[in-house]
Amino acid sequence: MLENFKLEGARSRSKKKTVVSVKRLLQDLGGHQPWGCPWAYLSHRQRRFSILGGPILSTSVASLLGELLHEELALRWEQLLLDDAFTGGALAWVPGRTPGSGQLVYPAGGALDRLYFQKVNLTPGSEPRVLGGPGHIRLRGPVRQVVTRTVQGEALLAVRSDYHCALWKVSKQGQPAPLQVLQVEKGATGISLSPHLPGELAICSRSGAICLWTPQDGLQQIYKDPETLVFRDPSPWRWADFTAHPRVLTVGDRTGVKMVDTQGPQGCGLLLFRGGAEASCQKGERVLLTQYLGECGPECLHPTLHLICTQFSLYLVDERLPLVPLLKWNHDLPSAPLLARLLPPPRTGLPRPLLLAGQGGELQLLHIAGEGASTPRLAGPPQSLPSRSDSLSAFAPLEPKSQWRLQERLTAPAIGLAAAIPPSANTPVLSLFQLSAAGDVFHQGLHLQADPGPDSPAPTASWTPQATASCSRWLKALLEVPPAPPVWAAPTFSHRRLLGCFEPQKAESKAPEGLRTAMAKGRLLQLRDLGLLPTEERAPAPEPGPEDELSERLEAAWEGQAAAWWERRRGSSLGPGKQPKRHKRRTQLSNTFSSLSGRLDLSDAASPPPSPERTLPAARPQPPVTPPSQESTQELWARAVPSERQQTLRDYMAELPLQGDAPGGASVPSSQTSSVRATPSRQRAAVRSGSQPHCKKPRMGF
């Protein structure tokens, strides 16, 4: 195909229509529309390209699209089963200068490509107070995960997109400053911030690679294995987190979790958890989330604890005792638990709350006790918290369409979870924030029990007047009817050339009324509805066509009455008041030649053989007829028929049906037996014309 395309270089002066400019073709295929409307412009280059490349593109493009379609369908099916893009959560709480103040960091927008920073002030016993409008940063992709951590008094913010990861440093005034942006070609699946060194970031890729980024050393790959750890699983999901040792990381996939030394050789490590008999895992159980729970502080849990969540259970694993979980609990969540948050104790000596959220918005609250060297345990039974969908009954009844929209927004999948406990002298209050896939941030204020025991009631959501007013404003904004978008119409082509000869009939036009009537009655539109037909007149009866004549003739021939049919046909076509419609020229010639035959000398002619159609009676004696002389016969022949028409006359007379002896004893001369033959009717016309004194000049030159 190279001869049909002009590549970059010197300008070609070829005027062939089979040569296409590649540069302009790529502009056309890239969406270059000089008129602004994609439907109003179709270049001739695209048409020529489709014609020239049709035989080749019909096979290669079909196979390529088939592979891409199969890959997309497989990805969509996996997302329907489990959408792991928002594992870890896309909502974070950044503490501020004073206790109870901070800002929420979350994505919003139709594509979730805008990162918002909203300052919030938490006050015990009241709703959170929003300070001003949110600031935002526009990104080049949807935000999938947001992670914050404060290390040595420095607040850091990490954001993961599909193919990019970014790191910000948040000042004490709450202003983010970008530090680094990294591109992940194969797609990022998880990020984690180090609790030991400020600015250290672990990134996981779908290719099985784990990279570590530090401000001093930059990006370095510490582990890569495209295969899963324990058994084979097709999921490309990978996860990494830190441990109690600054140079040891945990690497996880759907089959297990492994500890990897960043300073050791590639591939070396120790299994921390695997789905199998050691952990009493169920059939088909897979790892969904791993999180490091150890933090530096006087009231923290043991620094070697890790949280591992599957679709069935929750496990607490210690680095010092791998493969054997210290705690297992069946969470019974109807959806996959992809979000978990460990909060500081509300008061000194109280257990630490652990929030677990499912993808469908379900919430579980656990209290983990065991500081220092004591074994971690659950302080009281886990408690189910009210979900967003449970608050649907608190809204006033709406019309069905609005009710459906409200229910759809409240039941949207959860993609982010954040919580904070403001200082309070009375009963501690848990401020819980949830981010839905629709971009809504919901807040719940829950009263925590000072001593959660087996008989302690579950926390309940408090509906204050401020919360009711806030929900009313949100619902009003949700149900506002947006302005109708401009109706786009496809460009029309000029019809002046097609309808220029027709004059508009404004006064007598009944087309719109007839169209409305037909549409109202639900019937087809007919021509009489348009008022364009003239008054109805009875159409003439159709005459029998050639097919009917042929059928009659074949039927008569089959019955042996072909001669009678021919006579009837001749009689009906030549009846009184009718003119023959077919063979007009042949009939005129026959009449002319019949009149000529009557003047010929027929005394010396031999009688022709009898007609096969009928037998003539025996010849009776007739009175003698005085024949004219031969010279007069030749003179009449020459006078009536030009010399150049004589051969045509002979050929025509040879095609006429054979006939017996002429009436009156006249016979055709032997010299003209093969050329002068006539039917009975024509012979009778010839006898009658023989008595005429003069010959009328024949038509058509004869």
From TrEMBL:
Q: Where is the composition biased (Polar residues)?
A: 588-597, 668-682
Domain of life according to the entry: Eukaryota
Extract the ranges annotated as region (Disordered): 531-552, 567-702
Q: Which residues form the TAF1C beta-propeller domain?
A: 158-294
Q: Name one GO cellular component term.
A: fibrillar center
Domain (TAF1C helical bundle) spans 404-597
Q: Name one GO molecular function term.
A: RNA polymerase I core promoter sequence-specific DNA binding
Q: Which Gene3D superfamilies match?
A: YVTN repeat-like/Quinoprotein amine dehydrogenase
* Domain TAF1C C-terminal stretches: 623-702
What PANTHER family does UniProt report for this protein, alphabetically?
Answer: TATA BOX-BINDING PROTEIN ASSOCIATED FACTOR RNA POLYMERASE I SUBUNIT C (PTHR15319), TATA BOX-BINDING PROTEIN-ASSOCIATED FACTOR RNA POLYMERASE I SUBUNIT C (PTHR15319:SF1)
Q: What is this protein called?
A: TATA box-binding protein-associated factor RNA polymerase I subunit C isoform X4
Give me the gene this protein comes from. Answer: TAF1C
